[in-house]
Design brief:
Bound molecules: pyridoxal-5'-phosphate
Strand content: 5-15%
CATH class of the largest domain: Alpha Beta
CATH topology of the largest domain: Aspartate Aminotransferase, domain 2
Largest sheet: 7 strands, mixed
Shape: globular
Number of domains: 2
Length: about 375
């Protein structure tokens, strides 16, 4: 079977290293807030290129904690996209704020030119989602944010190692939020997340919020000093030692694995360029990290079901835009649409259109060329029969 993503080949390759690292954690007597987390925090923030970085429980929490640390809550509006994973919006609503949706461009990320029309007195932040492994146009977004005195919280859940003008995502706004969910470019074998920033004050606040509002004064060993006293209201969101140990191993191979993703993408680009599929484009300012390789076709569902017969299993990121989902419809209805002014979502034209046509081809570093070429051949055959 060919899957759109598979962790087993990687696990087989590094199994001994993973199991040794887990054994080391078990023997250390420190399962939470220990040396593995500190080592990983230091290494991952360096990888991203920020002064500060903290591990948290998952990417949804990362976004939530960032918003809380920036003072975002009830009555505030946060601008983002509807063509994203649900958690981007879950976190905004969890923080008490209102999501405001802006359409995406041909690169599937927020259309920076449309943001201005959605800014109101209540706008407190923009969450640009660096979707599918490609960065948003951060110069334009930063300019708008600066002019309007609003924060930028990058959603980097799908963009580890992706670059905009030579800088890594997660270092381009006030705060960067990562997920290490298993499928991600850097993923663990469970849940984990991370937040990056260059602002010490925001960092200190996020450190408290992730641990029940407690001050975590470091001793010289780097451990928490044990004062069990909440100085503010927080939440409980921890990246534990086992996942930190696994992530340390995988971080060593991250550059190499992104290169492999780019190589796989090149093969798709070359082999599928003369077909009816619309292939992904890369903004010239970007280095694409190819979390997923997303194509478009009007007969998407037919192609996917034909491929299943050949034991090739694809998926769709994402089949439904957030603004049509039951819990979030009400936010979309409130939007003042610059184009139609009645808000039947025509201001989200691309989002609506793409959701009906997009699908993802197999993409993970251990995908073999043989499986990739078989997938390509099968797709081409199906496309010929559709014509
Ligand atoms: C764009 C985006 N934002 C946020 C998240 C949330 O991450 P997590 O699943 O670790 O909570 C994800 C992952 O699913 C994501 O893809």
């Amino acid at each position: 079977m060919i899957k759109v993503w598979d962790y087993i080949p990687e696990y087989k390759k590094h199994r001994k290293e993973f199991l040794n690292a887990i054994d080391e954690v078990f023997k250390s007597s420190t399962l939470i807030f220990g040396p593995k987390l500190i080592e990983f925090e230091n290494k991952f923030k360096k990888f991203v290129g920020t002064k500060y970085g903290l591990g948290v429980g998952n990417g949804t929490d990362a976004l939530y904690i960032a918003m809380k640390a920036l003072g975002i809550g009830v009555g505030d509006e946060v601008i983002t996209t509807s063509n994203t994973a649900v958690p981007t919006v879950t976190a905004i609503v969890n923080a008490g704020a209102t999501p405001v949706f802006v359409d995406v461009d041909k690169y599937y990320v927020i259309n920076a030119k449309l943001i201005k029309s959605k800014i109101t007195k209540k706008t407190k932040a923009i969450i640009p989602v660096h979707l599918y492994g490609q960065a948003c146009d951060m110069d334009e977004i930063n300019q708008i944010a600066k002019k309007n005195n609003i924060h930028i919280i990058e959603d980097c859940a799908q963009s580890h190692g992706a670059e905009y003008k030579g800088k890594k995502t997660g270092s381009l706004g006030d705060v960067g939020c990562f997920s290490f969910y298993p499928t991600k470019i850097l993923g663990t074998y469970g849940d984990a997340g991370f937040i990056t920033t260059n602002n010490e004050k925001i960092y200190d606040k996020m450190m408290r919020i992730r641990f029940l509002g407690m001050e975590r004064k470091k001793m010289s060993s780097g451990h928490w000093n044990g004062q069990y006293y909440a100085v503010e209201h927080g939440t409980n969101s921890r990246l534990d030692e086992i996942h930190a140990a696994i992530l340390l191993i995988k971080l060593k191979n991250l550059h190499k694995s992104i290169k492999k993703r780019q190589k796989i993408a090149k093969v798709y680009d070359k082999e599928l360029k003369n077909t009816d599929l619309i292939l992904p484009e890369t903004n010239k300012k970007n280095k694409h990290a190819y979390y997923v390789y997303v194509v478009q076709h009007r007969d998407r569902d037919k192609i996917i079901s034909e491929l299943i017969k050949k034991n090739i299993h694809l998926n769709i990121s994402y089949p439904w835009p957030i603004h049509i989902m039951e819990p979030y419809k009400k936010f979309a209805k409130k939007m003042s649409c610059f184009k139609c002014n009645k808000c039947n979502y025509t201001c989200l034209d691309n989002t609506n259109l793409f959701s009906k046509k997009i699908f993802s081809l197999p993409m993970y570093p251990e995908l073999t060329l043989k499986d990739q070429l078989y997938t390509i051949k099968s797709i081409k055959k199906i496309l010929l029969n559709l014509n």
